TrEMBL record:
Residues 24-87, 123-182 form the RsiG-like domain. CDD domains: RsiG. InterPro entries: RsiG-like, RsiG-like_dom. This is RsiG-like domain-containing protein.
Length: 188
């Protein structure tokens, strides 16, 4: 009997849904500088939250995939012996992120850990080596599907961040904003 891949709440939930709604950026050019900065900080926080969640998810996926590979190749080493290789990201392609410098921390790490754990509700990944191949394969499918969806939402949030940063830059470039006022606000 094969279980279907679960359909979890989308990564980031309602907070990210709101950012991805086209209405979020509607009339941004008419909003105050303070409002645009607040919107940009909200988007930045959600991007950090999604990035953290993706790292958690990717770590589990890497371990599950490596265990499946170890079994298929009849590799005599234990998964523990392979951890340095897994953690070094051997075999993984180049990063697809935008290399953004993050200035904030994830808001609720336990919430994101719980979300990732909920992706495989019927497969306990705390004992990967003790799981049947079918369970590992089911977990790998669920994690990979969630990672793809999460990455897509993260790219969308990054586009919102870019639009907001672009609006701020436009205002400074056109003389609609005062750098001295910004520095005074930042100094408070």
């Amino acid at each position: 009997m094969t279980s279907a891949i679960p359909h979890p709440t989308p990564a980031g939930g309602a907070a990210v849904d709101e950012l991805l709604d086209p209405a979020f950026l509607q009339d941004v050019e008419h909003r105050s500088m303070a409002d645009v900065r607040v919107l940009r900080r909200r988007a930045e926080q959600e991007e950090v939250n999604l990035s953290y969640t993706r790292r958690l998810l990717q770590g589990r996926l890497d371990i599950v995939r490596r265990e499946l590979q170890r079994r298929a190749e009849h590799d005599g080493r234990s998964l523990v012996d392979l951890l340095p290789e897994i953690l070094a990201e051997k075999g993984r392609g180049p990063a697809h992120g935008l290399g953004r410098h993050q200035t904030v921390q994830p808001a609720s790490p336990e919430e994101y850990e719980s979300w990732v754990h909920g992706l495989t509700p019927d497969v306990d990944l705390s004992d990967v080596m003790g799981l049947a191949d079918a369970d590992l394969e089911r977990a790998a499918r669920a994690l990979a599907a969630a990672e793809g969806q999460l990455s897509e939402r993260r790219r969308g949030v990054q586009q919102v961040m870019d639009a907001l940063a672009g609006e701020l830059a436009r205002r400074y470039r056109n003389g609609e904003a005062d750098v001295a006022a910004l520095l005074a606000d930042e100094g408070r």
